[in-house]
Design goal:
23% strand, 4 helices, seven-stranded mixed sheet, Rossmann fold, single chain, alpha/beta
Length: 189
């Protein structure tokens, strides 16, 4: 299927999930995420979930990491809709958030973090394929962001659904994942 068709299908599949189903799926995702080796990670970039779209909730992992790996710096982004670029900020106890026009909580201000410092990125997606390609919302923010990160950055997609066999129209600018975590397990690419 094409990205457009997959985007439409998986947006609807996620919207159709109940709050209880999302909570169950989030617990399953966390059970797989905590099996990854976090010992060498110093900077982890996380997306903050858009509740109205039933995105996998990253707060479970953030809370677990803060308890088990308190030295990991959590990084969050603020999107500039004019340039389609994301600025990255350290998330500390002083960080204040504001919901943007897309419903995404973003830091109001804070300490900027260079992309080259980031060791791992939790990547939002609607669905991935078995080769590590993903379908997002189609704006390209994460592809541009990941292109500026180090080549060894661990890109970890979170999905409520098992990867599909193949996305037909992958572009040269599409940045592949290194992992896709879904309720049934972990795909490593």
């Amino acid at each position: 299927m094409t990205k457009e068709n997959l985007r439409k299908l998986y947006k609807q599949k996620r919207i159709d999930l109940s709050a209880a189903e999302c909570q169950t799926l989030d617990r399953m995702l966390l059970s797989h995420l905590i099996t990854l080796d976090w010992s060498t990670c110093q900077y982890l970039h996380v997306y903050l979930s858009i509740a109205k779209f039933n995105e996998p909730d990253t707060m479970h992992l953030v809370n677990w990491l803060r308890e088990n790996y308190p030295n990991i710096h959590i990084v969050v982004s603020k999107a500039d809709p004019e340039s389609s670029v994301m600025a990255n900020f350290l998330w500390d106890q002083n960080t204040q958030f504001q919901v943007n026009r897309w419903g995404i909580p973003e830091p109001v201000a804070g300490e900027l973090v260079d992309e080259q410092l980031i060791d791992a990125v939790l990547v939002p997606l609607l669905v991935a394929d078995t080769q590590g390609h993903r379908v997002g919302y189609g704006k390209g923010f994460y592809d541009r962001f990941l292109a500026r990160c180090r080549s060894d950055v661990r890109t970890i997609g979170l999905s409520y659904f098992e990867p599909v066999e193949r996305i037909e129209d992958v572009g040269v600018w599409d940045m592949p994942l290194k992992y896709c975590i879904y309720p049934g397990g972990i795909y490593r690419f």
